[in-house]
Protein: Major facilitator superfamily (MFS) profile domain-containing protein
Organism: Hyalella azteca
Amino acid sequence: MCNSSFLGGWPSVFYVFGSLGVVWSVFWFPLKTPWKSIWTSKHVWSVILMHFGYNWVFYTLLTELPTYLDRIQHFNLSSNGLLSALPYAIMYVYSLFHSLLMDHLTKNQTISILNVRRLAMAVASFIPMLALIGMCFVGCDRTLAIVILCIAVGACGACYSGYLCSHVDLAPCYAGTLMGLTNTFATIPGFVSPAVTGAITNNNVSNAGSLADGVPDVSSNNRSYGSDLHPDD
């Protein structure tokens, strides 16, 4: 297929297998999914907004972090790879710690499930936001830049006790469907965020002051919510 002229050659691989995936997915759609209740639920839209906002920061860091370390802080290629992975290793460790702590507190009835979700998204939203604002002032201090980036990405690990559990809270029987729906919207920042960052920096990354220039205030929507989903009549 790559050597053919069909759909432009190598892009045809993505078109063909992507189309097959869409066709195959039809057979897995539950016939009794309460789509009307889902689309009209304010709680579902609240989760969509949280998912979208969180992913904006996540994808900005994911796509721009290696460039920042290379072009702004001038780390060499081998160091860049290790340092780019370090914040995500910290995120993994912190996600385990935060989840275990929240589980312990809920078992002791110290905190409610609702407040666990609120706290998780507050940590995963406000701490990275403040850390990225702080990136504006690190200048050429490479050590400080790495520390702040580790804090920004590491705090994102709290989300695993936040919106990622909200789908089960809202409708356990349709959690997978809800996750697919919210993630469809939340993947949009994956291609919009790099474009916005490029527009803000005029695609001249060597003059970019910091990653914070491309990150909007995405404080999570921490309103209360509950399950209001029910099968359509």
Remarks:
- The chain has one domain: 35-214.
- Residues 35-214 form a domain with the Growth Hormone; Chain: A; fold (CATH 1.20.1250.20).
- The CA atoms of residues 37 and 229 lie 5 Å apart.
- The mean pLDDT is 81.
